[in-house]
Amino acid sequence: MLKTPPALAKKYDRLLINSDIPPDDYYACRKWLRFYLDFCKKYEHGYADNKSLILFVEKLNSKNQNSFQKNQAQSAVNLYYSGIDKKTSVPISAKEYPAPADLVMEGSDSIDIAEENNPWDVSINKLKNKILTRHYSKKTLKAYSLWAEKLRYFAKDKEPDTLTIDDAKDFLTFFR
Q1: pLDDT at residue 64, rounded to an integer
Q2: Mind spelling out the 3-state secondary structure of the chain?
Q3: Which CATH number does 119-174 carry?
Q4: Domain-by-domain residue ranges, the chain?
Q5: How do residues 22-36 score in pLDDT, each as one tens digit?
């Protein structure tokens, strides 16, 4: 499961404190928010789209969650929606992960997200997210990232989309 970006977690905690949700339920609300964001990422739904919440609750229903859990999840996501500043935030798709950090919440400073213009950085981050989503070990993440960086420098910053099978063969035989 992907982690909630720290800036979003901090802002969500402020929303929890200012809400009428009892402090004992804060942990569960954070959990449901993480599940919701993961759901949006996995099924490529918009993070700030009410239709995503309906689909999320349907998914919980198919997982045999009881009505208390579904209501709790819905309340947690509605609290998240309440903090999204509709004026400055455009609902975005899950393809643009980590979108939750990009959403500007009311009464807060905007979040500085480094734009990744380098296609290698984007590809390596996608690889890392896939590994984390599949719950591979930290050593696997480290090894795969290292080999991806080696390929990057071997290819002399040739864009990853333009690599051919011959490039991969050359890379693998170079490290024999």
Answers
A1: 92
A2: CCCCCHHHHHHHHHHHHHCCCCHHHHHHHHHHHHHHHHHHHHHCCCCCCHHHHHHHHHHHHHCCCCHHHHHHHHHHHHHHHHCECCCCCCCCCHHHCCHHHHCCECCCCCCCCCCCCCHHHHHHHHHHHHHHHCCCCHHHHHHHHHHHHHHHHHCCCCCHHHCCHHHHHHHHHHCC
A3: 1.10.150.130
A4: 6-102, 119-174
A5: 888 999 999 999 999
